[in-house]
Amino acid sequence: MDSWRKNKLAFAVLALPPTAWLVLFFTVPLLIMWLYSFAERGPQGQIYLAVNFANYVRAIEWIHLGIIWKSIWIAAITTAITFAIGFPLAMGIAFAPARWKNILLLLVILPFWTNLLIRTYAWIAVLRTRGFLNFGLEWMHEKLSAFSALIGLPDVMGEFQALELLYNQKAVVIGLVYVYLPFLVLPIYATLEKLDKSYLEASLDLGAGHWRTLFSVTIPLALPGIISGCLLAFILSMGTFLTPALLGGTDSEMIGNLIARQFSSSRDWPFGSALSFLLLYMTFIILWVRASLAGRREEPI
Amino acid sequence: MDDSTIISVRDVTKRFGSSVLAVNRVSLDIKRGEFFALLGPSGCGKTTLLRILAGFETPSEGQVLIDGDEMEGVEPNKRPVNMVFQSYAVFPHMTVKQNVAYGLRVTRTPKAEIEQRVQQSLARVQLEEMAERKPDQLSGGQRQRVALARALVKSPKVLLLDEPLSALDAKLREQMQIELVHLQQSVGITFVIVTHDQNEALSMADRIAVMNRGDVLQVATPTELYEYPNCRFVADFIGKMNLFDGQVVGVREKQVVVRAGAIASQIGDITIPFADQAEGEVGIAIRPEKVRLNKLEPKEETIRLQAKVKEVVYYGNESHVFLQTESGAAITADMKNSSRHAHAGIVKDDVLWVSWLAEDTLVLTS
Ligand SMILES: Nc1ncnc2c1ncn2[C@@H]1O[C@H](COP(=O)(O)OP(=O)(O)OP(=O)(O)O)[C@@H](O)[C@H]1O
Ligand SMILES: [Mg+2]
Fold this sequence. Notes:
The structure holds two protein chains of two kinds.
Chain A: H1 3-6, H2 8-36, E1 40-41, E2 47-48, H3 54-59, H4 62-94, H5 98-109, H6 116-127, H7 132-150, H8 169-194, H9 197-205, H10 210-221, H11 223-238, H12 242-247, H13 255-263, H14 269-298
Antiparallel strand pairs in A: 1-2
Helix pairs in contact in A: 2-14, 4-8, 4-11, 8-11, 9-10, 11-14, 13-14
Chain B: E1 5-16, E2 20-31, E3 35-39, H1 46-54, E4 61-66, E5 69-70, E6 81-84, H2 96-105, H3 111-124, H4 140-152, E7 158-162, H5 170-187, E8 190-195, H6 198-204, E9 207-212, E10 215-220, H7 222-227, H8 232-237, E11 242-252, E12 255-260, H9 264-267, E13 269-273, E14 281-286, E15 292-294, E16 303-314, E17 318-324, E18 330-336, E19 351-356, E20 362-364
Parallel strand pairs in B: 3-8, 3-9, 6-7, 7-8
Antiparallel strand pairs in B: 1-2, 1-4, 4-5, 9-10, 11-12, 11-14, 12-13, 14-20, 15-19, 16-17, 16-19, 17-18
Helix pairs in contact in B: 2-3, 2-4, 3-4
The complex binds adenosine-5'-triphosphate (ATP) and magnesium ion.
C-alpha cells in the first residue's frame, strides 16, 4: 500500500495541480494582501506600497477594538448556544438506531444545499415585525385572550405587541447559531460515533446513572471533538460578514463587516488588509493554544 | 429454586428484529460460588445471554432472577453484578486508581473506605505499583487486571466476564486462566465467563453450558461434558471425535446393540453399555485418544477393525494418526509419544488393527 510513496514521479504528477491551484489562488493573493497591509492609501483610494504600520495601529484604535471585542463576544455567545443545542443533537444522532443515522445526518447537512443568502433572507421573513414568528405569537395571543374572556377572566393580556426581533444583536446570534450548527455537530458526532460504547456501559455497570456517565465518561472522551466543533463555530462566526449585514442593526457591526466596508464603500484596501490579517493572527493564536493544550494532554504524567 | 442458586434464567428468549433469534428459550441455574462458563461457537448468543444478565439487553421473553430477585426493569447500574468487558473498557482518561475507585465514587462511598477498598483490590491483582499510571501505559494483561479490580472492588454477587482472555497471547492466556481460578476461589464470588475456547472452559469452569445457535444444549461438569456428551454437536465441539452414523438394532437392560453403517462390515453389531432410551438413527462415537493401534490383531474383548494409515502428524507430545478402512470410513487415533521412538513404527500405508473398548463407545441420540 505504501508503494506510491516510493514512486516519486507519480506522486509529483498527482500533487502538482492541487499545489499549483493553492499557490496561485490562495497563497499569492494572501501575500499581496499582506503587502497591502503595510501600504498607504491615496486620496482616491489608490494603493501606494510602503512599509509602515499605520494601518495596524489604526486597527487597534479604541473604536475598532470595540468592534473586535463585540465580534468576540457575539462569537462566544453563539458558540455557547450552538453547543447547548448541538451537543444533544450530535448525541441523539450518534446513539440513534443505525437506519436512522444517515437520514438524521442528511437533515443536518441539508441547509447547505441552498444558498446562504437565500437562507438568511428566509430568517428575515421569519423574524421581522410582520414576520411568521410574530404572526404565530399574535395568533396564540388572540386565542388565549378569547379563552380567558370565555371563562370570564378580566382581560389581563392587553393588546398584542409585536416583538422587535430583527435588526439587532439577538437576530445576529440566532442567524449565526443556525448557520454554524452543522459545523459544530459534525465533529462532535464523528467522535461520539467512534467512541467505544462499552465505556458507557462499563460506567453504568459500575453503578453510575446516565447523567453521571454523561459528565464523567462521555464528555471527557468526546472532548477532542467538542473542542474542534466549538472552535470551528467560534472562528467562523467571529469572521462572519453576511449574517450581521442582513440581520443586524446599527449596533451589530462585526469585524467582518468592517473589513468588507474597507474594500467597498471606504475604498481603503490597505486598512482592510491590515484588519484581515489581524483576524487571521487571532485565529492562529486560538489554534496554537488549542494545539499546545492537546499536546500536553498526550504527554505521560 | 433453592438457596444455593444465585442466578436463575427461565425460558429466556432474545430476538433482534424479526429475523435474528440470538437466545432461544434458555433455562439454567447458576450456583452460588460457582465458576460457570458459557461455551459455544461464534455467534451462538453467549454475549447476548451475558448482557441480558448484566441488564444491557432486555429478554424478549422469560425472566432472570439474581439472588432471588426478579430483574425485569432493573437498570444495569442497580444490579448486584459487575462485568469485565471483552475490550476491558478501562477508562482512558483516568488513572488505574481512578478507574478502580470510579464504581465506589459514583455510589457515594465514604472517602476512607474507598481508599482502603481500592488498595485491597489493586493488591489482589498485583497492580499496586501501577496505581498512578494511565491505561495507555499498561500492557494488555495489566489493563485486564484493572478491569478485574474495578469490577471486584464493588463486591458484586456475580462477576460476568465476556471472553476476558481472548485478547492475550497464548502464554499469558494460560497463566491468566490459572490466576482467574485462584482469584475466584479466594474472593468466593460467582464467576460467569463467556468463551469460545473449549480448553479454557474445560480447564477453568466448575460447570459449562454449551450453546449453539441460541440453544443451550448441555449443562454439565467438564468431565461429564467430555465423557458423556448428550448430542453430536457437543461431542464434536468439545475435543475431537470419531463419529459414525448408525442404527439401534436391539435394546437390552442397560445396553444397546447398534450397527455402525460405514464400519459394520468389519465389526458387525456391537453391544454398548447405555442407560437411556435409544431407537432408530443414532451417532456412534469414540474419542481419538481412546483408540489403540496394533500391528497384530489384539486378543482382548474389544471392538476392532483393520485400516490403512493415510497420514501421521507429529505434535511433539503426541502424534495424530489418520486412517481409512477399506469401506472408506475415516478414523483418527491420537498416540501419546511417551518414549522417543513411540511413533516410529507407524508409517503411511501401513495396515493396522484399530481397536477400542465397548464401554468407551458413545451412543448419541440427537
Ligand atoms: N444488537 C444486535 N442487533 C442485531 N443482531 C444482534 C445484535 N447483537 C447480536 N446480534 C446477533 O445475535 C447473534 C448472537 O450474537 P452474540 O454476540 O451473542 O454471539 P456470541 O456468541 O457472543 O459470538 P462471538 O463469539 O462471536 O462473540 C448473532 O447472530 C448476532 O449477529
Ligand atoms: Mg461475543
